[in-house]
Write a structure and sequence with these properties.
alpha+beta, Jelly Rolls, 2 domains, five-stranded antiparallel β-sheet, four-stranded antiparallel β-sheet, about 40% helix
């Protein structure tokens, strides 16, 4: 069962050949149902084209529903055959690319439980049910968006090493640069280490946004949502540069430690707001905001 079907979300799933997946939701008479069916771009999306069946009280029958679909007694059923467009759609917030096979928007004739079934007679693969039309997030949902981004990349078929490669390169380069200045690193206190790695995580996610944007654009048509991705990438990179500048600048940290802690508090909150640092970066920045910045000795 799906609660609050008007809330915008994507439900990811996987289907085997001849298999079915059902979703149910309660809707009141006159309310709107907005539902769609997507598959990831790439090789799999070129061969896997599932169908969507909507069932509910008061609906008129449309199309030939597969015999494997169980239609409740007294319900009408409408089948929407998946049709793959020429070009995949680019989505700027994740960023990602997908084929939109079906999109349905209608008002329900009667109150009750409605069902959506994803069906594929031939072949199988990953799919997504795009449900709802109201964009709303709880605080926890907003904070966990970076983890959902990784889940989306995995749904697209990307390997975990490919996903974390930009961040890994950034961390590796940062550690290598610090190791070449052992004398300076020896004077690092916990606050400075936290601030430095917060900056590296921010930079890494900025590069990740950029690489995912280029990867998705290589499998989709151009979209104005590229502007959204560029903004998020530049914001992450900007936070990273500021954090590294504050952490590595040679000065008497004890003199302005309170101001520096305030800056890292702002950086941590901004990182959470802008999905920078994959949660780890903001946590490290907030840690740098509460730790003392006085030098050793």
């Amino acid at each position: 069962p799906v609660e609050n079907p008007s809330k915008s979300r994507v439900l990811y799933g996987q289907l085997s050949g001849g298999d079915l997946q059902y979703y149910s939701f309660e809707v009141e008479k006159g309310e709107k149902i907005v539902i769609g069916l997507i598959v990831p771009s790439g090789k799999e999306g070129l061969t896997f084209t599932p169908d969507l069946v909507i069932m509910g009280p008061g609906l008129s029958d449309e199309g030939e529903v597969p015999k494997t679909v169980e239609v409740p007694e007294g319900y009408g059923a409408r089948i929407f055959s998946g049709k793959r467009p020429i070009n995949a759609t680019y989505e700027g917030f994740t960023p990602s690319a997908f084929y939109s096979l079906v999109r349905v928007d209608f008002q329900v004739p009667e109150s009750g439980t409605y069902y959506a079934a994803v069906s594929s007679v031939e072949g199988g693969g990953n799919y997504g049910i795009v449900l709802g039309y109201r964009e709303s997030f709880s605080l926890i949902e907003w904070l966990l968006i970076p983890l959902n981004q990784i889940r989306t990349y995995r749904w697209e078929g990307q390997s975990l090493p490919f996903i974390i490669f930009p961040l890994g390169v950034t961390l590796g380069a940062g550690i290598l640069a610090i190791s070449h200045k052992k004398e300076a690193a020896a004077g690092f206190n916990p606050a400075r280490w936290a601030g430095t790695f917060a900056g590296l995580f921010f930079l890494g996610t900025g590069l990740s946004f950029t690489s995912q944007m280029l990867f998705s654009l290589s499998r989709s048509s151009y979209s104005h949502e590229v502007i959204i991705t560029v903004f998020l990438a530049l914001a992450s990179i900007g936070l990273g540069i500021i954090a590294l500048t504050l952490s590595l600048k040679d000065e008497r940290y004890g003199v302005k430690s309170i101001r520096k802690q305030f800056y890292f508090l702002i950086l941590g909150l901004a990182g959470l707001l802008l999905w920078a640092g994959w949660l780890i970066g903001p946590i490290l920045a907030l840690e740098a905001a509460v730790l003392p910045w006085r030098r050793k000795g």
